[in-house]
Hints:
- This is Probable septum site-determining protein MinC.
- Keywords: Cell cycle, Cell division, Septation.
- By secondary structure, the chain is α/β, with parallel strands linked by helices.
- The protein has helices at residues 23-35, 58-70, 81-92, and strands at 4-9, 12-18, 46-52, 74-79, 106-109, 112-115, 124-127, 130-133, 142-145, 149-155, 158-161, 171-176, 180-183, 186-189, 202-207, 210-215.
- The protein is built from 3 helices and 16 strands.
- The radius of gyration is 20 Å and the shape is elongated.
Amino acid sequence: MEAIEFKGKKEGVFVLLDCSLEFDYLCNKITEKIKNADSFLGKGMEIIISLHNTDLNMENRNKLKSLFESLDLIVKKIIPPIEENIINISEKIGVFQDIIEDEDSILTNGPTLVLKKSLRSGQNISHNGTIIIFGDVNPGAEVVAEGHIIVIGALRGIAHAGVKGNDKAIVFAFRLQPTQLRIAEIITRAPDGDQMIPNDPEVARIKDKRVIIEKYA
């Protein structure tokens, strides 16, 4: 990607930044691009900054916000790489949720429940739509959803997606290692003995009346 790119979405104008670049160089490219984009970016326009490739510390985030404000733009929010990743995943499978700021809060937005913390043994989450978890689901924890289950972390507990017979539901995790995984009425369990830790995100779905697990692409 270029140092700075623009993308219009229903939520507003997104400014995509390649944060792997040296910060001062990135700021210079931002200034140059914004000054040449007067016809696209109106004075006082609200924008959403999307950080790519690597995150920025709070000091540089504040500098970035001040830079855009000096260019007569209003920064509505800054989305770090992990949250941009889940937006892309969610859009691909047909769900979308607002980004939430509070690390410990739960947001119900239409059919999607977003939880931003890990689940410990003994904790259970149940929802009548899709569940997205920014954290791990540890052994002894259980997640039950009528829709999809998406875990931005390790899934090592019990997961049941499509609980009311939705055989189109999926289970996605950065590390998919459930003790039990169920989609609709079809159940699969972890094999006995040591398991190989997956190196890539994986997705489980029903195919030919059985649950299959594939590398997510």
